Amino acid sequence: MNGDNYFIPFFSSLPISVNTLRLLTPLLALVFFSCSNTTRSDSSEIAEEQLPDLLDSEELRFTQDDQENIQHLIKITLKDLFKEDIEKGYLDTLSRQFKYSQFDLNQDGKKEIFVGLTGPFFCGSGGCTMLLLSDHGDVITRFTVVDYPVYVITDKSKGWNDLVIFSGGENRLLQFDGQGYPSNPSTLEVYSRDLDNMNKILDWESQESYSFY
Question: 113, 202 in Cβ contact below 8 A?
């Protein structure tokens, strides 16, 4: 039998000689390498798709009742928001203080975070700056001319609780518009109903203050 013309048993369905096989070897190696890369790529895509599920697993889930974590989240958010002002030295000791309250405004099981700011940098004759953050620290609304406390009432707009905030010398009604709440309460309609049985948050006299840097 001629050594250059015998058939390879593995390729018995095709008459491939040794010389042909020698020519095909680089091509076969390239195909194998390509398939291997595709498999690895597919595996990476699967891993990325599974990542949100892993992050939302019981072991890694963010605990909203861990107040130390909440405070750390707020501090990171405030330092990021006011980074330039901090670097320029605009914030005195009092203006570095904040108080916070949590409340699930849209009943999705995740508590939004109200952050009350104080000091001359954030407060003036009309009131102070207040932030409403998501449970992950994203800013939902940045309020101005706010006087504490804030009331969360039972009425809802677009699935979120209405708020009542003292601003411009009157209690004002704030309603969610699908994206956030009005940022300047002083221009809104006056709320004249009784607030005695409503949820009161950011009660400045009774809550502890924290410094964000």
Answer: no
CB contact at 8 A, 78 and 99:
no
Return the percentage of the chain with pLDDT > 70, whole number. Answer: 70
Separation CA 197–CA 192 (nearest Å): 14
Closest CA to 182 of 195, 190, 173, 191: 173
Q: What is the pLDDT of residues 170-184, one digit of tens each?
A: 999 999 999 999 999
| Strand-pair partners of 151 | 164, 200
Beta bridge partners of 199: 152
Of the CA atoms within 13 Å of residue 183, those in its CB half-sphere come to 8
| Rounded Cα distance, 144 and 194, in Å | 24
**The model scores a pTM over 0.90:** no
Burial of 155 (0-12, 13-18, 19+ CB in 10 A): middle
Please, which contacts does 34-42 make with residues 24 or more away whose CB atoms are closer than 8 Å? Answer: none
Q: Where along the chain do its domains lie? A: 9-55, 67-211
